[in-house]
Amino acid sequence: MKSWLTTTDHKRIGLLYFWTAFAFFLIGGLEALIIRAQLVRPEGIGVSAETFNQLFTMHGTTMVFLALMPLSAAFFNFIIPLQIGARDVAFPRLNAFSYWVFLLGGLFLNASFVAGPLFGAGQLSVAPDAGWFGYANLTSRQFSPGPNVDFWLLGLQILGIASLAAGFNFVVTILNMRAPGMRMLRLPPFTWMTLITQFLVITAFPVITVALVLLMFDRFFGTHFFLPSGGGDPILWQHLFWMFGHPEVYILILPAMGIVSEVLPTFSRKPLFGYTVVVYSGVVIAFLGWSVWAHHMFASGLGPIADSVFAGTTMLIAIPTGVKIFNWIGTLWGGQIRFTTALLFAVGFIAMFIIGGLSGVTHASAPTDLQQTDTYYVVAHIHYVLFGGTILGLFAGMYYWWPKMTGRLLSERLGKVHFWLTLIGMNLAFFPMHLSGLLGMPRRIYTYSPDLGVAGFNLVSTIGAFLVGIATLVFFWNLLRTRWQPVNAPANPWNGATLEWAIPSPPPVYNFTVIPTVANRLPLWQTERHGPMAPLPERPPAPIHVPGGSWWPMITAVGLPIMAIGALSHFLPVVLAGAVVAIVGIYGWAFEPFEM
Amino acid sequence: MLRDPVYFDAVPLALVSLVLLLLTACGGGHYPQSVFHAEADFSRELDGLFRNIFAWAVGVFVVVEALLLVAIARFRARPGGPEPKPVHGHTALEIGWTLAPALILVFIAVPTMRTIFDTAGHAPEGALRVEVIGHQWWWEYRYPTLDISTANELHIPAGMPIQVEMTSADVIHSFWIPRLAGKRDLIQGRTNRIAFRTDSTGEYWGQCAEFCGASHANMRLRVIAQSDSVFQRWVDRQRAAPVTPAKGSVEETGQQIFRRSACIGCHTITGIANAKVGPDLSHVGGRGTIAGALFPNTTESLHRWISNAPSLKPGALMPPQSLQGADLDAVVAYLQSLK
Amino acid sequence: MAHDTHAATHHHTSMGLDSRKMAFWAFIGSECLLFGSLISTYLVYKGRSLVGPYPHEILNIPFTSFSTFDLLMSSLAMVLALAAVQRGDMKQGKLWLLVTALLGLVFLGGQFWEFSHFVHEGLGLTTNLFGSTFYVLTGTHGAHVTIGVIWLLTLWVQALRGKLGPANAMTVEITGLYWHFVDVVWIVIFTVVYLIQ
Amino acid sequence: MSEQGQAHATTGTYLRIAAILVMITLIEVGVFYVPAFQAVLVPVLLVLSAVKFTLVVMFYMHLKFDNKFFAFLFGGPLLLGLAVVVSLLFIFYGTVRLRTGS
Ligand code: HEA
Ligand code: HEA
Ligand code: CUA
Ligand SMILES: [Cu+2]
């Protein structure tokens, strides 16, 4: 127990990230299922408007910040050091800190579901209810008087710290901890996409930090940054949020694209087609991703010039994304494809992401978006890219790397059931949303008129959502089975080409008995240019010392939610107490003898 | 594992069910808020553009998905199959599949830009100006040139260009009547514009499209496009002073009760009350619906609305009123008389 | 698990650059966007205050010029401190670290005086958009200076206790990066907020 | 400058840079008070502060002598931040009708 609390081992932190994020995924999914249950028929099943607003806000926030980002982080943590031939990340304690901050931030946000009585709210739940992008000026004290929005803004502030810390850590890890010979253009594609993602994180998160700070001043100290009554402009919030928010969606998709770029070559027994192009297109996507934010604001009246510019830049992103897709197909082409579950999910990713990407292009056309924005058509788009894209990609990663992470094989039979249920379920759930949207159903409504004519589509969506729910339970069962009915995994069960497969499953604490010297991009494969790398010695030639654990990251992290609780309750001493805890933690950390 | 027939059955199965879904949407049925049934210049232009882009998207979809399916069907591993050739890439292909999408995008971008400028919101000379002000959770309409102020139901003359200027009294809302026009947000402190012209008379439905709090779902809107003469009659009635109830009638009692009640703190009835928190009631009896086009304007719904609005419409900013029995009947009768 | 160092991984890095320094430069890059967003907010809201006091009525250029001078000098002291520590001249190192911190304190004192003077003149945090954007932008900068001063003093105490030497020059260098960055942010703020009214 | 190519700046350089920085600051403040400069005040001030900025970053933060990669880590986001400022200014002052107030 203590060893888990103080751990700085990237592998353990990776597993902590995984289980925490997976739990939040179930919670976010449960929220989605209640949403879908309410929408199963026009007048609903009795979920109140207030509860419904909390549900979709927490669903979006949870899925984005507490499920998808940290699930990717689970792989960053576990896999990246192995792929680059390192013993750990560059800053193991900072890594632990990121995890604890993430966990506590997530708990803080979700505590709002039961914190009502503390605020005399007259109901149990005071969860955030202004939507995951919290548009001003609905978030002002005047229109949202309760603590709901406070939970949201403080929670996101905390989570931002976790992401930023991890961002710096992984940038340095990937650049600086590579094994000898692991040149940049020999990095596995997953590592590359992670690197790009981290650059997006460290540039995009400061912007939302500022937006949240300004909002905090508006709510706590009576300023008018986003309030027209004092000369402020709610549109500024939208700009700041989406300047973060759009890069954020690429933060969510790029790691999944990286995973797919690992899985396809392994299971078609061919190198990734156009490796350099795939890498550079990732860079281009990230770069362009910074220039398109106002496509979320076409209806806000930016004027025709800005609309045209942002429509144009948005469309450009289709090019590097398309390039990736064609290269993936090129990888499959001429291969010897083994239909493992991981491969099915990777192919499912491509198939579904195309649909989401194409609906994205119809959004990118500003005029047509005027009919689509804020309808279920957008909801369809985001779930094809986020679920059909990111989630399917992450599942591919889970089936691919679970043996490495735990030393246990997942059942392929259950995996296939999981895959097909998920694929069919998600299409039933999300495809009809295109239609209900175009037929006039706005998003974020807890009830709709039977006259709209969309009841049938909603029924199908709900059925599909529950199918996905069942599929997720199948997967959960599959995970648990690896504990209860273990089947041990060999070091390289899939015949993968990258370094993580050169060491036992699960890897020993020190990862590599000897740091390998890398001579090419696919070290474990026989290709026409080179043979597989010589196996590493079974035991380390000399004793390897790994750094011990540390309490300080967790102590420092604990300070943050304490400060947030103080702010929530408008009780300064608690804020100060939290600050003291954090400062003590930082000093303890700084002066602790801890060497890598 | 590879012979497993399930793959090759499930894919077509899923596709067929999707197509079936599509058909149900396009064929038949009555969809008051469908974007596919454009009945004004603005919406028609958007619809045309969408169909254009959609066609490209379908083309891309079919080609790319087909390639993907062919790849996985053709290159399944066969026991004892040859070791695949380790191809690392192909420069000509890379250039090709960079340029092809770029070219397609040109065909999407050019009409997009044109439509952006076409629909930038400025109506031709002589358009009827309407100001829309969003409130949590109802719509206020003003016709500055006609000196009319009303709520929740927008009357317009069919065939005449309409210049809509919008802003909000509180949070952001979005004005959307799919058959007539694309959305535009109502933002406090800003003025946004759209312009459109309907083809024909009729009733058009829409609703608020920007999340605006508890009753966002209940912020519907109704547009009534009328022939010139009918519209003119409507204008005349709106500009007339509110009906004065006959002496001794139940309506007169209602008026007195209205005067004595909290109502005057929030509502306007020209000559009786002058407050701006809620909708102008000077001609409320002539409206087909009340409360953000949510309920038909019947005796029953007025009763229920006045006694306890928030129970009908979550969060409604009209508190429950203590009027009861005969008093309530009288007020309702009075309001209904205000044609 | 032992606390020792594994010799092979300690000094070797694949880019040959110090990891902490690299992380710190990435952090500074990230801070550019933090201040970029704040400055954007200030500029976007410039001239949109509904009531006074307005910038030209209240900003005190001579005084702030002095603060700017003070901060520039602290940057000088900081490079001197670093150079001394790198040379192993801990006497000079201690001195210049202390001078840097003290100049930072002077700056903070000036900011404290400025803020209270403004409040006295009727410009509060919530008075108008100028007040809000001004205090949040300069306040965020001030918070950075505060952290810097604490950091410098910590180093100074370490030096007094003889725990700082050329072996920790990298720590001092990173502190310096932070301190200079705070200085360049002020260079921008001084121009954008004070001089361009 | 003579230091070019050398691995480290000397104390002399630091002092000279400090002198230049102080001088520029004096010029900035001077320009601010000279009515004749009002027309070009903004560009002049922006250029001067950019020079100061660059001097500190190049010499005090050693970016001039240090690994180019650090320049990338700092310069990339710096340019991005600059782009954020410029594009927001464009959007708010360029194409959008400002608050009407009416
Ligand atoms: C994983 C996350 C993710 C990804 C990858 C994307 C990708 C894209 N998104 Fe999406 N988007 C979201 C997540 C994502 N989006 C979310 C969460 C929202 C809603 C936020 C909210 O309001 O709550 C949103 C909203 C959103 C909007 C605003 C809609 C609105 O609210 O009105 C727009 C508008 O332009 C848009 C566009 C695009 C485009 C053009 C892409 C492109 O990157 C897609 C590129 C891919 C392809 C085009 C397919 C493959 C390409 C080819 C096969 C080549 C050939 C293709 C052509 C020639 C067209 N997205
Ligand atoms: C980021 C990823 C992500 C993911 C994976 C999902 C997954 C799902 N989403 Fe979500 N969604 C968003 C991101 C995501 N969503 C965002 C950003 C929004 C916008 C929010 C906003 O407007 O502010 C949104 C909005 C949104 C809406 C619109 C709400 C509205 O506008 O009113 C709907 C409606 O159907 C919906 C449905 C679903 C469904 C059915 C799933 C399914 O895939 C879920 C599958 C189900 C499970 C995975 C459940 C498994 C669990 C169990 C079976 C129970 C066991 C439980 C425990 C043991 C605790 N989502
Ligand atoms: Cu008004 Cu939603
Ligand atoms: Cu976007």
Summarize this structure briefly:
The complex is a heterotetramer of chains A (596), B (339), C (197) and D (102). Chain A has helices at 2-5, 10-38, 49-83, 92-111, 148-176, 189-221, 234-268, 275-289, 304-316, 318-332, 341-364, 366-372, 376-406, 412-438, 455-484, 552-568, 572-591.
Q: How many individual helices of chain C? A: 7
Would you identify the CATH architecture of the domain at 65-195 in chain C? Answer: Up-down Bundle
| E-strand count of chain A | 0
The SS-based structural class of chain C is mainly alpha
Main sheet: strands, sense, barrel of chain C = none
The helix-strand sequence of chain C is HHHHHHH
The radius of gyration of chain A is 24 Å
What do we call the CATH homologous superfamily of the domain at 65-195 in chain C? Cytochrome c oxidase, subunit III, four-helix bundle
Which pair of protein chains has the largest interface, and what are the residue counts? A-B, 102 and 104 residues
Name the average pLDDT of chain A: 94
Q: CATH topology of the domain at 65-195 in chain C, anyone?
A: Four Helix Bundle (Hemerythrin (Met), subunit A)
Strand content of chain A: under 5%
**Total number of beta strands of chain C:** 0
What would you report as the Rg of chain C, rounded to the nearest angstrom? 20 Å
Which residue ranges of chain C are poorly predicted, with pLDDT under 50 across at least 5 consecutive positions? 1-10
Helix content of chain C: over 70%
Structural class of chain A: mainly alpha
Counting DSSP H or I runs of 4 or more residues, the number of helices of chain A is 17
- Summarize the main sheet of chain A: none
**Quaternary organisation:** heterotetramer
Order of secondary-structure elements of chain A: HHHHHHHHHHHHHHHHH
